[in-house]
Design goal:
Elements: H1 2-21, E1 27-33, E2 47-58, H2 61-65, E3 74-75, E4 79-85, E5 99-100, E6 110-115, E7 130-131, E8 135-139, H3 152-156, E9 165-168, H4 186-189, E10 193-195, E11 198-199, E12 246-248, E13 251-253, E14 261-263, E15 267-269, E16 278-280, E17 283-285, E18 292-296, E19 302-306, E20 309-314, E21 328-335, H5 345-351, E22 357-358, E23 362-365, E24 381-382, E25 392-397, E26 418-422, H6 429-433, E27 469-474, E28 479-483, H7 488-491, E29 494-503, E30 524-528, E31 534-537, E32 545-554, E33 569-572, E34 581-590, E35 593-601, E36 608-617, H8 659-662, H9 664-677, H10 692-715, H11 737-743, E37 755-758, E38 763-766, E39 774-783, E40 794-799, H12 803-811, E41 820-823
Parallel strand pairs: 1-2, 2-3, 2-4, 3-5, 4-6, 5-7, 6-8, 8-9, 20-21, 21-22, 21-23, 22-24, 23-25, 25-26
Antiparallel strand pairs: 10-11, 12-13, 14-15, 16-17, 18-19, 27-28, 28-31, 29-30, 29-32, 32-33, 34-35, 34-41, 35-38, 36-37, 36-39, 39-40
């Protein structure tokens, strides 16, 4: 009987434990704590789906004694602790905090910020394993210790070189106690700590068995099976407490599969309404986006359903929200872009990419930004069920820079209503006439569209049939464009050329992509008022692909006449030397070893091929003031290492309204002088009969003279358009200066004695060093495809610990702290 009772008790107890283990975590939303009472809102929260801000708060000894620790294990956005006085450690608040995900960052940059807390003695986040996204900034905490011992590289995960940690103006490490008390074990001597005796935890620290080479994170279980790289706290992603990606129960997955939806950016749930959220596609959201309305389903789930009904007016990019999901617009659309700078043509491309049909009318008015309507790339019907002014289904008025309507081969049907085109000075009338086949009910009349009010500022019949341009020389910062010779007839009305260029990671650019009539787009513009067929594009980024095309500038009509355009072509600039390394972190592992870790250069100027390391012993010991936590980087003296400010495309060339630039009065004067001087002489009676052969010879001679003159004019001053090209390597070792000048070559830099590491490695341990010795460590990054392609050195000084000192401390049951050092300042 007692045995039966014990069995029943075991079963009941096991069942209670199992049910308790399956209990879902309590999820709370973002909170800003400014009073002690605000902590009551967090007392039952295990996950914060948002951020936690603790700011401007004062603790007294009494309130600190009554403070209860919070059960929070995860924060999905960021944690900020700012000007909290009286609090000695964050362990009182967050003893169980495991991860900060950084889905949204403070100032789009930080995942963890601990700033200006005057009584904070240690951080105390004893369970913290990872800040997945965002930098860490711990600054101006005058009593804070132990922060310098933490391996912040491990907490950041080192997955991206974009985020870093910053420790500034805290208590100097030399005035802080050690991590451990008397009689420490050998293991404790080499561990980092949050406070006295509270050592730093590391992900999967228990899985250090010998692993196969193919194990992604060098972790495996006792049987040698590779650990999953999806689980942060264990080896198996089928039963994981904290997943790196998305959680489905206790299982780590990469994506939520229907009918589940992603909630809080971290977990899959079958129903959103159980978390007071709305279902939006495959996600759970707080509120429906623009143009969506909430509809309650039979199962109680509230879903966001698209509602593209009504008459919409677009005046800026803010009005475009939600349109990217509209395929059919049950209403009418008016585009009147009154705010020039706050409307991006790229936003129009995204918003109307899926729009196929407009049931009402389409109105384009007073929008000088528009160069074309190519952002309606999938539009096929303007139905005209509702008409502007009870007559027009397509209404285009007063658009100063509009040059084109639809994409090539795009046909938009207009089954009902008229079209209306006026005051579009750059839109040629023949492009309006192309709409005739799509008009079903009405013909095109002078009242609807006139040649006198459309295209009057451009020459709509091409004089120059073709313009060919190529890149014939390029370096890291410049490219020379070469235009094919024009005929003498085409050269007569030519003022110069307009060069358009932009960065193009992919080769899918068209002439009207993201074009902005007022220049507020990402096309740079160079205007060259010369018939010289060469032009240099300057201030380019190294190792970057660009798209470019060229247009002619003629005097045929008004200020800014374009008669011919080249096709869009592409080129890539050459690599340049990279900048210095962003940051170097080092740690003394033993009297004979120093571990270094580094971040790549902020400005790579190419594909990093390798890193070089030099280290040598410093003969005389450096004074203690040398070992400060500041960057020991050589200044970047060459322009290619500088971070140049972004050039505003709208200021990169003269605008069409700049009358002084084109010197209209001078042009009129020059043309009048030609007519005044070159007066045709009166015809004289022919006294001589000229043969047909002589006429042909004279014509050929005159034509050749004109052609030769035009070539000279187009090549005039060509020596002013030279650009520097990297020199080849000399064929001899240690060439003299005379040899290099005579053979136009450069000497190969000697890096044979340097230790070289591939670009995939960002940590290295220097071994076989001398105890209690200062070493100068110099590192460089090198790009591939460039002769002498290594950047400037970044130099740090590191010191190994003394063996004698270790022996003395060990005899006293003490040991020196082998601190982490962060030598290098994060460049903003």
């Amino acid at each position: 009987m007692p045995r039966l009772w014990q069995c029943c008790l075991f079963i009941v107890t096991f069942g209670i434990v199992l049910v308790a283990g399956q209990k879902e975590p309590n999820i709370c939303k973002s909170i800003t704590v400014k009073t002690l009472q605000d902590f009551e809102k967090l007392k039952n929260c295990s996950i914060i789906a948002g951020h936690v801000q603790i700011a401007a708060l004062d603790f007294t000894p009494e309130t600190l004694a009554n403070l209860k620790p919070l059960p929070i294990e995860e924060i999905t956005e960021y944690l900020l602790v700012y000007r909290v006085n009286g609090l000695d450690t964050l362990e009182r608040l967050f003893p169980k905090l495991l991860v900060i995900r950084g889905i949204k960052l403070l100032y789009d940059k930080y995942g963890l910020v601990i700033l200006e807390n005057r009584n904070l003695e240690n951080i105390g986040l004893v369970e913290l394993l990872r800040v997945f996204r965002g930098s860490i900034r711990i600054e101006s905490n005058p009593l804070l210790c132990y922060a310098h011992t933490i391996n912040w590289v491990s907490i950041l995960g080192n997955r991206s070189k974009k985020y870093h940690y910053i420790l500034n103006n805290n208590k100097p490490p030399n005035f802080c106690p050690l991590c451990y008390g008397p009689n420490p074990s050998d293991e404790e001597r080499h561990r980092q700590c949050w406070s006295l005796g509270k050592f730093q935890r590391h992900p999967m620290a228990n899985y250090t068995y010998p692993c196969l080479a193919e194990c992604p994170n060098k972790k495996c279980n006792e049987k040698g099976k590779c650990c999953s790289d999806n689980c942060l706290t264990g080896c198996n992603d089928e039963n994981c407490k904290v997943c790196i990606g998305i959680t489905n129960g206790k299982k780590c997955i990469r994506n939520c599969m229907p009918p589940n939806a992603l909630a809080f950016g971290r977990q899959c749930v079958p129903y959103c309404h159980k978390y007071n959220l709305l279902r939006f596609g495959s996600e759970c959201v707080d509120k429906c986006p623009a143009l969506y309305q909430s509809i309650r389903e039979n199962d109680g789930e509230e879903t966001c359903t698209l509602n593209c009904s009504g008459n919409f007016t677009i005046k800026s990019s803010e009005d475009l929200k939600g349109f990217e999901d509209c395929g059919i617009l049950e209403g009418s659309l008016t585009i009147e872009l009154t705010d020039i700078k706050k409307t991006s043509t790229n936003d129009l491309d995204i918003a109307f990419a899926n729009l196929r049909e407009i049931k009402g009318y389409l109105k384009i008015v007073r929008s000088p930004q528009l160069v074309s309507l190519h952002f309606f790339k999938n539009l096929h019907t303007i139905a005209g069920n509702y008409l502007a002014e009870d007559k027009y289904s397509f209404y285009v008025v007063n658009n100063h820079h509009l040059e084109n309507l639809w994409n090539t081969n795009q046909k938009v049907s207009i089954p009902r209503g008229h079209v209306y085109f006026h005051l579009n000075p750059r839109l040629c009338y023949d492009k309006i006439e192309d709409l005739k086949p799509q008009l079903k009910e009405a013909d095109l009349t002078v009242t609807d569209a006139s040649r006198n009010s459309n295209g009057e500022q451009v020459y709509c019949e091409s004089i120059i049939s073709e313009l060919n341009a190529t890149i014939d020389a390029v370096n890291a910062h410049e490219a020379r464009v070469l235009i094919e010779y024009l005929s003498p007839e085409a050269l007569t009305p030519l003022i110069g050329y307009i060069f358009y260029y932009k960065e193009a990671p992919k080769r899918n650019i068209t002439n009207y992509d993201n074009r902005h009539g007022c220049g507020h787009d990402n096309w740079f513009v160079d205007t060259a008022p010369s018939k010289q067929r060469r032009h240099i594009l300057r201030n380019l980024r190294p190792y970057t692909q660009y798209a470019y095309f060229v247009k002619t500038l003629t005097i045929s009509n008004y200020h800014y006449q374009v008669d011919a355009s080249s096709d869009i072509q592409y080129f890539r600039t050459t690599p340049a030397r990279p900048g210095p390394l962003q940051k170097i972190y080092y740690r003394s592992l033993s009297p004979n070893e120093i571990e270094i870790h580094w971040w790549p250069p902020r400005i790579t100027n190419g594909a990093i091929e390798k890193y070089t390391i030099k280290y040598d012993e410093v003969v005389s010991n450096r004074s203690s003031d040398t070992f400060n936590e500041k960057s020991q980087t050589q200044p970047a003296t060459h322009y290619e290492f500088c971070h140049c400010p972004t050039i505003d495309p709208e200021l990169s060339g003269p605008m069409p309204v700049d009358d002084d630039y084109f010197q209209r009065e001078q042009m009129v004067y020059d043309e009048s002088m030609y007519n005044f001087i070159y007066v045709p002489s009166k015809a004289k009676k022919a006294n001589k009969t000229v043969s047909l052969e002589e006429v042909q010879e004279n014509f050929q001679r005159v034509h050749e003279e004109m052609f030769n003159t035009s070539i000279k004019e187009q090549d005039h001053g060509k020596n002013d358009f030279n650009i520097s090209i990297p020199l080849p390597v000399c064929n001899v070792r240690n060439p003299s200066m005379a040899y290099k000048v005579e053979n136009n070559c450069q000497e190969m830099e000697n890096i044979e004695k340097d230790l070289e590491l591939p670009s995939t490695i960002h940590t290295y341990t220097l071994k076989n060093l001398k105890p209690h010795t200062t070493y100068r460590i110099r590192m460089r990054a090198c790009v591939e495809g460039l002769v002498n392609g290594c950047g400037p050195e970044t130099t740090v000084w590191a010191e190994t610990v003394s063996e004698h000192f270790v022996q003395i401390l060990q005899s006293l049951n003490l040991t020196p702290v082998l601190n982490d050092k962060s030598l290098g300042v994060l460049q903003n």
